[in-house]
Each structure stands twice: as structure tokens, then as C-alpha cells.
């Protein structure tokens, strides 16, 4: 079973993401912000990271940069799921090493489709 | 008074009573937004509890090996629709926080520039107005875009 690290500071968003991913058969580990995700990523590997952008302590782009510096996450798909839709932010995400940029609100079927496409 | 001093100019054109009244309105709006946030949180908590109850029942039926009938597919489809709609809480929370920050910053700015030493609450501490634009640009609950790099 593929494992996904789902990162969002909003409890309701984490619940929606978890429900969606679990219903598609994925194992989900939740993190409350980038720092929490970074600590959880240190202890194990994941098949995909799905992260929010605007979070306290560490945002999604900073998390992506840090994960990409870790050889274990060099080729792990990292998707940023955020309310931010500006081209400037998307380019920053891309430069940081993100695999894709998804703007909230997400459609569960579409999210599952994208994850199936990028996960190895 | 020097006309080169923008703060002095502002004080001159904004009568004290008007400034105090405007500041009061801004603070009232800010407090109302905080109340709106609490109402939203309470309502969403109830909605999400209901959602999880339904989702849990569906998962139990599927886990028991029950055939996925068209009716169950329809329930799953409706729950997925609810997932998209329930994300409004996260977006609304960000929008409220951003707007509230701006309102409070304006109120503090007025207190400092127009009321100054006359402010009975003392000199205001002015927060920086967020330089970043509002992160929430969506004006409807249609699903957002997907871009793979």
C-alpha cells in the first residue's frame, strides 16, 4: 500500500484529504505544518508528499526545498495543494522542486487521478 | 506645521472626532469578523462530524465486503461532493484572517497618525499591513486548477 504524507495546518482540510486518500486505498500520515512534516519525513519514507503552502513554522515551498536536499526524497513526488494561484507562487514551487501545483478547493476524483499519475 | 511632514498633514485634514469614529467602526468590523470566525468554526465542526459519521458508515459497509451497489456509489459520490464544499472553511478562515489583519492595521494607523498623543489608550502599535496579496482569490466553490510541472 502506498504511503502519503499529507500536510496542512487546517484540521478540517487534513480530514478531507485523509478521507479522500484513504477511500482510494492509500495509507495516510498527517502533519500539522512543514516543520512537523519534516520531522515525520526523517523517520521513514513516503511514496508522495501532499502539502499546503501557507502554514506556520514552515511553509510548503520551504518544506519542498528541504525534502529535495534529502536524497531519500530526491525523486518522491511532491504536490502543493493551496489556495494560492498566482503564477509567481507556482514558479517558486516549481523552482523548489515541486511536482505539481493544485489550487483549492480540490475535487476528490481529480486529486486521486493526479496522485495515481505521479506516484511510482 | 510643515507641509513637508505627511503625518502632520494627515492630522490636519482628519478631524479628531472623525478619526475616532472611523477607528471605532474599523474595530467593530474587526470584532464582528472574529465572531463570524467562531460561528463558522462551530458550524463546520458540526458539518464535519456529520460527514465523518456518514463516511465511517460507508467504509464499514465496504470493509464487510458488501457489494458496491449503485446506491453505495451514489453515497460515495455525494460524500466526495461534500469534500469539495467543506473546504470553504479553510478558504474562509484565511480570507477572514487576512481582512481582519488589514482592518486592525488601518485602525492602528489612524490611532497613531490622527489621534497621536490624544489617544486615551496610549500610542498605538502599528502592525505592518501584509505586503502579500490576499491568498484567497477564489470567488466560488468550483474545484481549482491542477498543473503538473
Percent range for helical residues of chain A?
40-55%
Overall mean pLDDT of chain A stands at 92
- Determine the number of helices of chain A (DSSP H or I, runs of at least 4 residues): 5
Q: In percent terms, what proportion of residues of chain A is strand?
A: 15-25%
Indicate the low-confidence ranges of chain A by residue numbers. Answer: none
Radius of gyration of chain A: 13 Å
Helix content of chain B: 55-70%
Strand content of chain B: under 5%
Q: What name does the CATH topology of chain A carry?
A: Rossmann fold
Beta strands of chain A, count: 5
Structural class of chain A: alpha/beta
Structural class of chain B, please?
mainly alpha
What does the overall shape of chain A look like? globular
Order of helices and strands of chain B: HHHHE
Series of H and E elements of chain A = EHEHEHEHEH
The biggest beta sheet of chain A is recorded as: 5 strands, parallel
Brief summary of the model shown:
The complex is a heterodimer of chains A (120) and B (149). Chain A is α/β, with parallel strands linked by helices. Chain A has helices spanning 11-23, 34-43, 60-69, 87-96, 108-118; strands at residues 3-7, 27-31, 48-51, 78-82, 100-103.
Amino acid at each position: 500500500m502506498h504511503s502519503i504524507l499529507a500536510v496542512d495546518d487546517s484540521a478540517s482540510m487534513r480530514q478531507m484529504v485523509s478521507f479522500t486518500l484513504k477511500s482510494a486505498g492509500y495509507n495516510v500520515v498527517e502533519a500539522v505544518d512543514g516543520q512537523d512534516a519534516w520531522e515525520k519525513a526523517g523517520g521513514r519514507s513516503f511514496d508522495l508528499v501532499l502539502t499546503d503552502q501557507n502554514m506556520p513554522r514552515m511553509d510548503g515551498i520551504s518544506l519542498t526545498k528541504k525534502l529535495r536536499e534529502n536524497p531519500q526524497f530526491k525523486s518522491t513526488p511532491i504536490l502543493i495543494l493551496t489556495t494560492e494561484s498566482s503564477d509567481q507562487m507556482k514558479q517558486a514551487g516549481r523552482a523548489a522542486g515541486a511536482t505539481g501545483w493544485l489550487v483549492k478547493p480540490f475535487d476528490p476524483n481529480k486529486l486521486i487521478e493526479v496522485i495515481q499519475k505521479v506516484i511510482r | 506645521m510643515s507641509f513637508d511632514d505627511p503625518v502632520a498633514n494627515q492630522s490636519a485634514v482628519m478631524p479628531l472626532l472623525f478619526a475616532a469614529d472611523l477607528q471605532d467602526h474599523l474595530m467593530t468590523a474587526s470584532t464582528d469578523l472574529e465572531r463570524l470566525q467562531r460561528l463558522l468554526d462551530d458550524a463546520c465542526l458540526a458539518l464535519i462530524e456529520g460527514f465523518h459519521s456518514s463516511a465511517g458508515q460507508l467504509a464499514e459497509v465496504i470493509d464487510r465486503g458488501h457489494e458496491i451497489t449503485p446506491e453505495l456509489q451514489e453515497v460515495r459520490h455525494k460524500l466526495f461532493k461534500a469534500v469539495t464544499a467543506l473546504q470553504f472553511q479553510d478558504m474562509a478562515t484565511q480570507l477572514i484572517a487576512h481582512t481582519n489583519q488589514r482592518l486592525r492595521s488601518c485602525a492602528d494607523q489612524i490611532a497613531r497618525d490622527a489621534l497621536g498623543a490624544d489617544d486615551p489608550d496610549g500610542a498605538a502599535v502599528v502592525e505592518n499591513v501584509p505586503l502579500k496579496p490576499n491568498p484567497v482569490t477564489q470567488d466560488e466553490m468550483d474545484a481549482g486548477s491542477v498543473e503538473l510541472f
